[in-house]
Structure formats: C-alpha cells, structure tokens
Amino acid sequence: MKSLLSISDIKDDVRYILDLAIKIKAGDVEDKPLEGKTLAMIFQKSSTRTRVSFDVGMYQLGGRGIFLSSNDLQMGRGEPISDTAKVLSRFVDGIMIRAIKHEDVVELAKYSDVPVINGLTDFEHPCQALADVLTIKEHLGDWKGRKICFVGDGNNVSNSLLLIAPLLEMNMSVACPKGYEPHEDILKTAHEYAAEHNTEIIVTDDIGVALENVDVVFTDVWVSMGDEAEKAQREIDFAPFQVNSDLMSLANDGAIFMHCLPAVRGQEVTSEVIDGPQSVIYDEAENRMHAQKAVLYYYLKD
Ligand code: CP
Ligand code: NVA
Questions:
Q1: Whether the predicted model's global pTM rises above the 0.90 cut
Q2: Candidates 121, 225, 260: which one to mutate for ligand 2, based on the most atoms within 8 Å of Cβ?
Q3: What are the two backbone dihedrals, phi and then psi, of residue 190, each rounded to the nearest 5 degrees?
Q4: Best of 43, 98, 123, 156 to mutate for ligand 2, by most ligand atoms within 8 A of CB?
Q5: Which residue ranges form the domains of the chain, and what is each CATH number?
Q6: How far apart are CA 298 and CA 301, in angstroms?
Q7: Mind listing the pLDDT tens digit for each residue in 39-91?
C-alpha cells in the first residue's frame, strides 16, 4: 500500500503530482473525481491550514473528510495504533494524520490497508513542501537552477524542503545555529538527491554564506509544537537568525519570502518582511489545498 510519509515516498512522482496540482487549480480535471470517498483526518496537534485545506479539498473533489481529534479517539486512551489502522481501513479510503511522533505514522501506515498521508510529524511536513514548491513555480517560473534558503531551525519543514529541492533541480542552503542542524538521515538523503540532480546543499551557521544568490527565503517558528520546554533557550540561540530587512537585503533582488505559518512576528520574522512586498505567505497557504487535492487524487482515485 502506497502512503505519503516523506517526500522520499514520491521521489519519482513529485513532478507528476505538481503538474496535477496545477491542473486541478486551473479547474482542468473531471468533476467530483473522489465521489463517495472518505478521508479520516487524525489530529494529535493543533492545526488551522492542514485541517481546513484537507476537509475543503475532499469536499471539492466530491468526497468528504472526517475530523478525528486524538483526544476523542480510543487511540488517545491507549488503543494500539495497529488496531486503529486496521479498523479505520474497513471504513475509509484514506487516513491523513498529524502526529506527535513520526514513528507512530510509520506504524499506522504499516498496518493500514488504505493510504496514509503525513499532515506533519516531528520529522517531516511533506504536504507543506509540495505547496511551497508550487508557490515558487507560480512566482518565479521554472525551479531549475533556483536557490532557496531556509533560515532557522532544522525542523520538520526544513527537512521536507531539503528533500524536495534537489528533486526539482533547485539548490538549497540552511542557515541555522550550531546544534539545530537538520537531521543527519535527511541530510544524507538530500545530498544523494543533490548528487543525482547536479544541485548543491549547504548547511551553515554563516548567514552571509547561506544567503548568497538566493531567490527564496524561508523561515519557520523557533519553537515548534513539542519543543515548548526549550522556549527560553531557543529564543536566545535563534535571535541572530531573525529574518528582517537586513537579512533579506543579502538575498537576490526580487527574492520572495515564505513561511508555512503560523508565524510569530517579532521573533523569527519581522512584520516589515512578512507583511511586506516580498512576502507570498497567503498564496503559499492557499496552495496547501491545491497541492493536497493533487495528493488526494493521486492516492485515492480508483
Ligand atoms: N502550515 C501548517 O501546517 O499550518 P497548520 O498548523 O495551521 O495546519
Ligand atoms: N515547525 C512547525 C510547523 C507548524 C506548521 C511545528 O512543527 O510546529
């Protein structure tokens, strides 16, 4: 059974899915391709964009989403993930899950008879990365040869971007404080993809080096869901990595600013940048739905 747990799972089909997203956004697919299909949507963490975009996306494709808070599920009281997967598979056509631990999503997919879609874990956020690259194409044209830079925490969002950038022939730099680098397994795979596609991946704590020749500047919160205990230390460690006008001036003229949202203005990004002319954050948020409709079509359509 095919699932989308990581960008690596769609390594060979990423362009196909993105082409599909462009077609779906343009209204260039059949009416109600997922008529009669249902998607269980399990949330162990808060969400605005993921919840609403998957729910509305299913509806617009002719199917329906079923919101399941882990607080209300028997899983939240200790029912095994394996039983949850097997039982839900008897009712629904797909499962989207936002989970605290990535291993739990791997386990869910192992026992599920229907596709499982990762709606964010502590390790990856593949649907966000798909929406992000769709937004880059709309604003900057072709991906090939572009350079994107992620400034801040080597977290779930930067992990998925590191995997998708080389697959689309983009170069990528990560500017992060020492000790907050992306996971070594992600970097190993990203370097493999970069070698295959003749692109470059750089991870550095030198902001000047990371921002050289950059077309897209990304950042994300300093304190992700689950990292709250480290808040005070993180605010100290990430302070020099704030995306402000001075930092943006190091990127190319015409560079765009992106953020998966929610954002904390005054921390990882200033209002001047996130609410300024280079910011494309609302197009990026809207594209969550278009990219995910392509994912749903790809995984759930008969
Ligand atoms: N970017 C994102 O995943 O947003 P939500 O947490 O609101 O779903
Ligand atoms: N890195 C953030 C992304 C939220 C959409 C988090 O995991 O909380």
A1: yes
A2: 225
A3: -60, -40
A4: 156
A5: 7-125+288-300 (3.40.50.1370), 128-284 (3.40.50.1370)
A6: 6
A7: 999 999 999 999 999 999 999 999 999 999 998 999 999 999 999 999 999 99
